[in-house]
Amino acid sequence: MFKVIQRSVGPVSLSLLTFRVYAAPKKDSPHRNSMKVDELSLYSVLEGQSKYVEEPRTQLEESISQLRHHCEPYTSWCQEIYSQTKPKMERLVQWGLDSCDYLQNAPPGFFPRLGVIGFAGFVGLLFTRGSKIKKLVYPPCFMGLAASIYYPQQAIAFAQVSGEKLYNWGLHGYIAVEELWKENFQKPGNVKNSPGNK
Asked: Per-residue DSSP letters for 104-147?
């Protein structure tokens, strides 16, 4: 076994050596010029022989082209709507995730308060008895009263902002009704300071 190892070490060590080999042309052979790639027959292309011809469209391709042309305004409209609603939907999803996190880690006493506020809304619904306007007004008012008991600071801030908004809406409504009244119900002869009364 020792002899086999000694014999195999010799050729392996020779394979690690590098040699340079130089080739020289024969002295008696005539000198030839090197050929270019274009001169080889493998790469030669006949000029003027090939021409691109577009295949005629089939009936199916024509139908698809017309369908795409007719659907283009609708697809651009859908893309525009999608780009507008995507941020809103992302905010809504984030709000839902934040709400779930808050409900999972709710402060102590939150769920009993929520139950009382919901029960107040149900009581407000019981007091409505047939009137559609009462069904819209009583439950939110009862829930707001119950919520203001538990969260007085937030209720005061909400009442201030809501009062300002209600005042602005009322003022705009009063101005709009006054303009309609002047345009439709006042006749030119009924005005006190008209030029004909002097």
From this structure: HTPPTTHHHHHHHHHHHHHHHHHTTTT-HHHHHHHHHHHHHHHH
Using pLDDT thresholds of 50, 70 and 90, give the confidence band for residue 82: very high
* Average pLDDT of the residues in 36-41: 66
Specify whether the CB–CB gap between 141 and 124 falls below 8 A: yes
pTM of the model: 0.40
Extract the tokens encoding 54: 């577009």
The two structure tokens encoding residue 26: 């024969």
> Of all helices (H) and strands (E), which one includes residue 42?
none
Would you call 144 exposed, middle or buried from its count of C-beta atoms within 10 A (0-12, 13-18, 19+)? middle
Closest among 167, 156, 133, 162 to 124, alpha carbons compared = 133
Asked if 68 and 76 count as a contact pair (C-beta separation under 8 A), the reply is no
Q: Report how far Cα 197 is from the mean position of its chain's Cα atoms.
A: 66
| C-alpha to C-alpha distance for 181 and 184, rounded to whole angstroms | 5
| pLDDT tens per residue across span 125-150 | 888 877 788 888 888 888 888 888 88
Determine the residue type at 97. L
| R_g over Cα of the chain | 46
Backbone phi, then psi, for 116, in 5-degree steps?
Answer: -65, -40
pLDDT tens digits, 94-124:
999 998 898 888 888 888 888 888 899 888 8
SS3 51: coil
